[in-house]
TrEMBL record:
It holds the Pfam family DBR1. One of its GO terms (molecular function) is RNA lariat debranching enzyme activity. Gene3D superfamilies: 3.60.21.10. Its cofactor is Fe(2+); Mn(2+); Zn(2+). This is Lariat debranching enzyme. It comes from Calypte anna. Residues 385-395, 484-509 have a biased composition (Basic and acidic residues).
Amino acid sequence: MKVAVAGCCHGALDKMYETLELLQRRHNVWPDLLLCCGDFQAVRNEADLRCMAVPAKYRHMQTFYRYYSGEKKAPVLTVFIGGNHEASNHLQELPYGGWVAPNIYYLGYAGVVRFRGVRIGGISGIFKSHDYRKGHFECPPYNQQTIRSAYHVRNIEVFKLKQLKHPIDIFMSHDWPRSIYHYGNKKQLLKMKSFFRQEVESNTLGSPAASELLQHLKPTYWFSAHLHVKFAAFMQHQTNSKEELPKATKFLALDKCLPHRDFLQIIDVEHDPSAGGSLEYDAEWIAVLKATNSLINVTQSSWNMPENNGLHAKWDYSVTEEAIKEVLEELNHNLTIPCNFTLTAACYDPSKPQKQVKPVHTINPQTTEFCAQFGLTDINDRIQQAKEESSGRGEYEEEEEEMDSTGSAEEPSDYNTDNSGLSSINPDEIMLDDEGGDEDLSTCSVDPSPDHPPDFSASFSDIRIMPDSMAVSSDDATDSNNEEVEKSGLSKQAEEKSLNERPLKRIGGDENGNSGVKKIKRRNQAIYAAEDDDKTE
C-alpha cells in the first residue's frame, strides 16, 4: 500500500492535492492514503480564523472551506492530527476524532484507526509542561491564554496511548520526539537549521512526551512536522527480555507545504490485501477509551495519571483480549467508521464576509453519536455543564483573545523542562504577544487566488518516492543529502546518552549579543518565512 505523508499543510489543501496529481502524471503513482502531521488548519469561516493561534494579520482563509462546503472533495482519504496553528474551536468539537469534511478524518486529541489492516495512531498538539497535567478545560471564545493552551498536549492522552499492547504500524506527532535527532544526520540538520544547535547539544529540542511514547509504542514508522525541515532517522529499540524480538522505528520529519519545498513523501507499507478499503475503528483503542473514561478531567487543576506509587488503587488500564472481544461484539464485528460528517458551522462565503462573527462552543453530532455508542463522556458536554455551573455561581466570565494575558504560570510537571518542541523559548507564543512586529509568517499569509492558480508543474520539481526501507546517513557523513540518506546506527553509548534529559537552558540573546526577543523574531522568520527561509539561515 502506498502512503503519502505531508508536513504542515497550513490550510493549503489545493496545493497538497494538486501535488499528488502532479506525482501521478510524472511517476504514475497514486497513494491509497494521505497522512498530514499537523497545522492542517481546517478553517471553515471567519470565526474559525479568530480561534487560530497566529497574529490577526496572518489569518487567511486558504482553501479548506471549499472541501467543508462540498464544493470540492478530497481525491484521496486524508487522515491528520492537530498542530499548534489550528482552528482549535473546530477540532475541539471532535475530541475523539471524526470527519471534518468528506474523506478528511481528524484523529482527535489522540487516536488509533486502521486502514487496510495498517494500524495508524497519532497525538495532536505540542508539548508545554505547564499545561501538560491539566484537563481539557478550554472552550471558545478563547482568550490569549486558552487560544494557546487549547493545543497543548495533556498527560491523559499520553497515558491512554501507553495502555496499548498491540503493535502500531504508523504513528504521527506534530512536534518531534526529544532525542530523535541523535539517530540521524545531526550535522546536516544543524547545517540547515543552525539555531537548533544549543537545544540539540543540550538534548532539549522536541517533546519528552512524544519521546516517551516512541520508546513505549515502538512503531514501525513515526512521522512529524512542526520544525519545517526534512529529517530522517533510524532508531533501534532496546529489548526488555531475551524473548522479545528487536524492533526499530523509521522516523521522518516533513517540511512545510510550499512550492520548491520537499514536503511530501511516498512510502510503501505492508498491508492486509483481504482488508476492506474503508477507514476503521481500532478495537483495542476503543476498549482503552472505555477503560479510562473515568479519568477525564475538564478543569484547570493539575493532576497526575495513576501510577504504581502506593497512592492509587489502580494504575494499569491496559485492556484484556476479552475487553477487545466485547468491543467487536458491540459493533457486530463491523469496525467501519460511519461517514457521518455533518456541517456544524456556516461556511465562508467570499461574497458575504462576516468579519465580526464570534466563535461559539459547539457540540458535534459525530461526538455525541460516538460517545453514546461506546458509553463515553462527551468532553464538550462536560465543559458546557461546568461552565453553566460556574456561571450560576458568578465565577465564569467570557473573555476573547484581545484581553491582556501573560500566559500560564509555571507548574510542576511530569517532566523537568518546558519545551514546545520548537526551541527553548516557544517562538509562536512570543509572536502572539507581539502582533505589531515585522515577522514574516508567510506560510499562514499565502492567500491563493482561484483566478490565478500556481504553476505546480514548475514549482514542485522534485517529488520524493521513498521505498519501504527508510534509512539515514551516519552522523559523520558530511557530504550526504538529508533527503536521500543512508541507513546507519549509533553506538549504544550514544543512544543511552541521548535519552538522558537535562534541565532546559533559556537563551537570552543571539550570537551578535542582541536581546532574546529579537532572536525569537529571527527564529520565527527563519522557520515560518517562505521566500526568505534559506537566506536567513
